[in-house]
Specification:
alpha/beta, binds guanosine-5'-triphosphate, binds zinc ion, metal ion binding, GTP cyclohydrolase II activity
Length: about 200
Protein backbone atom coordinates (compact mmCIF):
# COMPACT_ATOMS: atom_id res chain seq x y z
CA UNK A 1 0.00 0.00 0.00
CA UNK A 2 1.29 3.40 -0.93
CA UNK A 3 0.68 6.64 0.96
CA UNK A 4 1.32 10.27 0.26
CA UNK A 5 4.93 11.03 1.26
CA UNK A 6 5.13 14.79 0.67
CA UNK A 7 3.09 17.51 -1.03
CA UNK A 8 3.96 21.04 -2.00
CA UNK A 9 2.37 23.86 -3.99
CA UNK A 10 3.86 25.12 -7.22
CA UNK A 11 2.79 26.85 -10.40
CA UNK A 12 3.13 25.06 -13.72
CA UNK A 13 2.53 25.50 -17.46
CA UNK A 14 4.42 27.50 -20.08
CA UNK A 15 3.97 30.72 -18.12
CA UNK A 16 4.36 29.12 -14.67
CA UNK A 17 1.00 30.57 -13.71
CA UNK A 18 -1.25 27.54 -13.18
CA UNK A 19 -1.77 26.63 -9.53
CA UNK A 20 -0.98 23.03 -8.77
CA UNK A 21 0.40 20.78 -6.08
CA UNK A 22 2.97 18.03 -6.62
CA UNK A 23 2.79 14.91 -4.49
CA UNK A 24 5.28 12.11 -3.93
CA UNK A 25 4.45 8.66 -2.57
CA UNK A 26 5.86 6.05 -0.27
CA UNK A 27 6.73 2.55 -1.46
CA UNK A 28 8.11 3.33 -4.92
CA UNK A 29 11.80 2.70 -5.59
CA UNK A 30 14.23 5.02 -7.36
CA UNK A 31 13.27 3.76 -10.81
CA UNK A 32 9.61 4.41 -10.15
CA UNK A 33 9.45 7.90 -8.73
CA UNK A 34 5.95 8.62 -10.01
CA UNK A 35 4.31 11.88 -8.99
CA UNK A 36 0.82 13.28 -8.96
CA UNK A 37 0.12 16.80 -10.10
CA UNK A 38 -3.10 18.05 -8.55
CA UNK A 39 -4.71 21.07 -10.18
CA UNK A 40 -6.10 23.23 -7.48
CA UNK A 41 -9.34 24.30 -9.08
CA UNK A 42 -10.77 20.90 -8.35
CA UNK A 43 -8.55 19.61 -5.57
CA UNK A 44 -9.11 16.21 -4.08
CA UNK A 45 -12.55 17.09 -2.79
CA UNK A 46 -14.02 16.98 -6.31
CA UNK A 47 -16.31 13.95 -6.49
CA UNK A 48 -15.38 12.77 -9.97
CA UNK A 49 -12.09 14.43 -10.92
CA UNK A 50 -10.61 14.39 -14.40
CA UNK A 51 -7.53 12.16 -14.25
CA UNK A 52 -4.76 11.71 -16.77
CA UNK A 53 -2.42 8.75 -16.30
CA UNK A 54 0.50 9.98 -18.38
CA UNK A 55 3.49 7.77 -19.15
CA UNK A 56 6.83 9.51 -19.22
CA UNK A 57 8.19 10.38 -22.65
CA UNK A 58 11.39 12.36 -22.35
CA UNK A 59 11.60 12.99 -26.07
CA UNK A 60 8.01 14.19 -26.38
CA UNK A 61 7.28 15.77 -22.99
CA UNK A 62 10.56 17.68 -22.65
CA UNK A 63 11.88 18.08 -26.19
CA UNK A 64 8.53 18.10 -28.06
CA UNK A 65 9.81 15.49 -30.48
CA UNK A 66 8.13 15.20 -33.87
CA UNK A 67 7.90 11.39 -33.53
CA UNK A 68 5.00 11.15 -31.10
CA UNK A 69 2.09 13.08 -29.53
CA UNK A 70 3.00 12.75 -25.83
CA UNK A 71 4.12 16.35 -25.25
CA UNK A 72 0.98 17.72 -26.87
CA UNK A 73 -1.22 15.39 -24.83
CA UNK A 74 0.52 16.51 -21.65
CA UNK A 75 0.13 20.19 -22.56
CA UNK A 76 -3.52 19.59 -23.42
CA UNK A 77 -4.06 17.89 -20.06
CA UNK A 78 -2.49 20.80 -18.18
CA UNK A 79 -4.55 23.36 -20.12
CA UNK A 80 -7.74 21.43 -19.51
CA UNK A 81 -7.05 21.00 -15.81
CA UNK A 82 -6.11 24.65 -15.43
CA UNK A 83 -9.74 25.29 -16.37
CA UNK A 84 -11.63 22.49 -14.67
CA UNK A 85 -9.14 20.99 -12.23
CA UNK A 86 -7.98 17.42 -12.19
CA UNK A 87 -5.05 15.18 -11.46
CA UNK A 88 -2.16 14.08 -13.65
CA UNK A 89 -0.41 10.91 -12.54
CA UNK A 90 3.00 11.23 -14.16
CA UNK A 91 4.23 7.66 -14.43
CA UNK A 92 7.93 6.95 -14.91
CA UNK A 93 7.16 4.29 -17.51
CA UNK A 94 9.26 5.63 -20.33
CA UNK A 95 8.80 3.93 -23.69
CA UNK A 96 5.63 2.11 -22.62
CA UNK A 97 7.73 0.54 -19.90
CA UNK A 98 10.85 -0.48 -21.85
CA UNK A 99 12.96 2.52 -20.80
CA UNK A 100 14.53 5.36 -22.73
CA UNK A 101 17.54 3.58 -24.24
CA UNK A 102 15.38 0.73 -25.48
CA UNK A 103 12.92 3.27 -26.90
CA UNK A 104 15.76 4.89 -28.84
CA UNK A 105 16.71 1.42 -30.13
CA UNK A 106 13.05 1.03 -31.13
CA UNK A 107 13.22 4.37 -32.96
CA UNK A 108 16.22 3.09 -34.93
CA UNK A 109 14.11 0.12 -36.03
CA UNK A 110 11.19 2.41 -36.87
CA UNK A 111 13.51 4.45 -39.07
CA UNK A 112 14.16 1.18 -40.90
CA UNK A 113 10.43 0.58 -41.50
CA UNK A 114 9.02 -1.27 -38.49
CA UNK A 115 6.04 0.24 -36.69
CA UNK A 116 6.14 1.09 -33.00
CA UNK A 117 4.80 -2.29 -31.88
CA UNK A 118 6.86 -4.37 -34.32
CA UNK A 119 9.96 -2.52 -33.10
CA UNK A 120 9.17 -3.43 -29.49
CA UNK A 121 8.63 -7.06 -30.48
CA UNK A 122 11.85 -7.13 -32.47
CA UNK A 123 13.70 -6.09 -29.32
CA UNK A 124 12.06 -8.90 -27.35
CA UNK A 125 9.40 -6.83 -25.60
CA UNK A 126 5.63 -6.97 -25.65
CA UNK A 127 3.72 -4.22 -27.47
CA UNK A 128 3.18 -2.51 -24.16
CA UNK A 129 5.15 -3.47 -21.05
CA UNK A 130 3.21 -1.21 -18.69
CA UNK A 131 1.25 -2.34 -15.71
CA UNK A 132 -1.08 0.14 -14.08
CA UNK A 133 -0.81 -1.18 -10.54
CA UNK A 134 1.30 1.76 -9.39
CA UNK A 135 -1.25 4.19 -10.82
CA UNK A 136 -3.98 2.37 -8.93
CA UNK A 137 -1.92 2.51 -5.72
CA UNK A 138 -1.56 6.27 -6.22
CA UNK A 139 -5.29 6.70 -6.79
CA UNK A 140 -5.92 4.77 -3.58
CA UNK A 141 -3.42 6.96 -1.70
CA UNK A 142 -5.23 10.01 -3.06
CA UNK A 143 -8.57 8.48 -2.07
CA UNK A 144 -9.89 8.81 -5.62
CA UNK A 145 -12.52 6.13 -6.08
CA UNK A 146 -14.28 7.49 -9.15
CA UNK A 147 -12.93 9.53 -12.01
CA UNK A 148 -13.16 10.72 -15.59
CA UNK A 149 -10.17 9.33 -17.49
CA UNK A 150 -8.40 11.41 -20.13
CA UNK A 151 -7.04 8.89 -22.62
CA UNK A 152 -7.47 7.42 -26.09
CA UNK A 153 -6.26 4.01 -24.97
CA UNK A 154 -9.05 1.52 -24.20
CA UNK A 155 -6.58 -0.93 -22.59
CA UNK A 156 -5.57 1.71 -20.07
CA UNK A 157 -9.22 2.54 -19.35
CA UNK A 158 -10.02 -1.14 -18.86
CA UNK A 159 -7.00 -1.75 -16.60
CA UNK A 160 -8.09 1.11 -14.34
CA UNK A 161 -11.79 0.29 -14.50
CA UNK A 162 -11.04 -3.08 -12.93
CA UNK A 163 -10.04 -1.21 -9.75
CA UNK A 164 -11.71 2.21 -9.71
CA UNK A 165 -14.99 3.55 -11.01
CA UNK A 166 -14.21 5.08 -14.41
CA UNK A 167 -17.36 7.15 -14.91
CA UNK A 168 -16.34 8.50 -18.28
CA UNK A 169 -13.50 8.21 -20.79
CA UNK A 170 -12.59 11.59 -22.26
CA UNK A 171 -10.47 11.43 -25.42
CA UNK A 172 -7.59 13.80 -26.00
CA UNK A 173 -7.45 15.76 -29.24
CA UNK A 174 -5.60 14.21 -32.19
CA UNK A 175 -2.16 15.81 -32.35
CA UNK A 176 -1.21 14.92 -35.92
CA UNK A 177 2.17 16.05 -37.25
CA UNK A 178 3.90 14.98 -40.46
CA UNK A 179 6.42 12.84 -38.56
CA UNK A 180 3.96 11.12 -36.21
CA UNK A 181 1.29 10.12 -38.75
CA UNK A 182 2.49 6.51 -39.02
CA UNK A 183 2.87 6.26 -35.25
CA UNK A 184 -0.70 7.47 -34.68
CA UNK A 185 -1.99 5.15 -37.42
CA UNK A 186 -0.27 2.17 -35.73
CA UNK A 187 -1.76 3.15 -32.37
CA UNK A 188 -5.19 3.43 -33.98
CA UNK A 189 -5.09 0.25 -36.06
CA UNK A 190 -3.01 -2.10 -33.97
CA UNK A 191 -3.28 -0.60 -30.50
CA UNK A 192 -7.01 0.15 -30.98
CA UNK A 193 -6.57 3.68 -29.66
CA UNK A 194 -9.56 5.89 -30.18
CA UNK A 195 -7.87 8.27 -32.61
CA UNK A 196 -9.77 9.70 -35.57
CA UNK A 197 -7.45 10.13 -38.54
CA UNK A 198 -8.79 11.34 -41.90
N1 LIG B 1 8.42 1.58 -26.98
C1 LIG B 1 8.00 2.74 -27.49
N2 LIG B 1 7.44 3.63 -26.68
C2 LIG B 1 7.00 4.77 -27.22
C3 LIG B 1 7.14 5.07 -28.58
N3 LIG B 1 6.63 6.30 -28.80
C4 LIG B 1 6.18 6.75 -27.59
N4 LIG B 1 6.40 5.83 -26.66
C5 LIG B 1 6.06 5.83 -25.25
O1 LIG B 1 4.69 5.57 -25.17
C6 LIG B 1 4.20 6.03 -23.92
C7 LIG B 1 2.85 6.67 -24.19
O2 LIG B 1 2.06 5.67 -24.73
P1 LIG B 1 1.08 5.91 -25.92
O3 LIG B 1 0.86 4.59 -26.60
O4 LIG B 1 1.56 7.07 -26.78
O5 LIG B 1 -0.24 6.42 -25.28
P2 LIG B 1 -1.03 5.80 -24.05
O6 LIG B 1 -0.43 6.30 -22.78
O7 LIG B 1 -1.14 4.32 -24.19
O8 LIG B 1 -2.47 6.37 -24.32
P3 LIG B 1 -3.02 7.84 -24.08
O9 LIG B 1 -3.55 7.84 -22.69
O10 LIG B 1 -4.08 8.04 -25.09
O11 LIG B 1 -1.85 8.78 -24.25
C8 LIG B 1 5.28 6.93 -23.34
O12 LIG B 1 5.91 6.24 -22.28
C9 LIG B 1 6.25 7.11 -24.51
O13 LIG B 1 7.58 7.23 -24.06
C10 LIG B 1 7.75 4.12 -29.41
O14 LIG B 1 7.87 4.26 -30.61
N5 LIG B 1 8.18 2.97 -28.82
ZN1 LIG C 1 6.20 10.33 -26.81
Amino acid sequence: MSEIRARVNLKVGHNSDIDAEILSFTCFDKDNEHVAMVFKQADLKQDVPLVRVHSECLTGDVFHSSRCDCGEQLDESIEKMAEEGGVILYMRQEGRGIGLYNKIDAYVLQSQGLNTYQANNHLGFDDDQRSFEHAIAMLNALDIKQLKLLTNNPRKAKALADHVDVKEVVNTRVHLKSDNAEYLAAKQQHGKHNIKLD
